[in-house]
Amino acid sequence: MIEFEEKLVQIGHGPLRAVGVETLQVNVGKLCNQTCRHCHVDAGPTRTEMMTRETAEQVVGVLRRYPIPNLDITGGAPELNSNFDYLV
User: Fold this and answer.
1) 3 state DSSP class of 50
2) Global confidence as pTM
3) Contact at 8 Å (CB) between 48 and 1?
4) What is the pLDDT of residue 16?
5) Backbone φ and ψ of 31, nearest 5°
């Protein structure tokens, strides 16, 4: 079976090379005040997993060191994390 990268080269679209990071997406927790069946992170009011302040500080550190223009904050309900304001 032919490898993906080999196939890209064969059809004139490879090799693939990273050119930069446009968005850093962080999941700040699974706590949510709703219980949506379609939730892709299985969040809800009984979930307790939350990003810590230490991790939030590391996220800010990455953004200070690298020219990443967008921070996408996701999770259950991101505003329920006590570090949400710090990240924003």
Assistant:
1) strand
2) 0.77
3) no
4) 80
5) -70, 135
| 60, pLDDT greater than 90 | yes
Which phi-psi region, left, alpha or beta, contains residue 20 (left: φ > 0; alpha: ψ -120 to 50)?
Answer: left
- CA-to-CA distance for 77 and 70, rounded, in angstroms? 19
CB burial readout 50-65, b (16+ within 10 A) else e: bbeeeebeebeeeeee
DSSP letters of 11-35?
A: TT--S-------EEEEE-BSB-S--
Could you tell me where the DSSP H helices lie in the chain? Answer: 4-10, 53-65, 84-87
Each residue of 9-55: pLDDT tens digit? 999 988 888 889 999 999 999 999 999 999 988 999 999 999 999 99
Tokens of 9: 């080269």
Domain ranges in the chain are 19-87
Beta partners for 72? 25
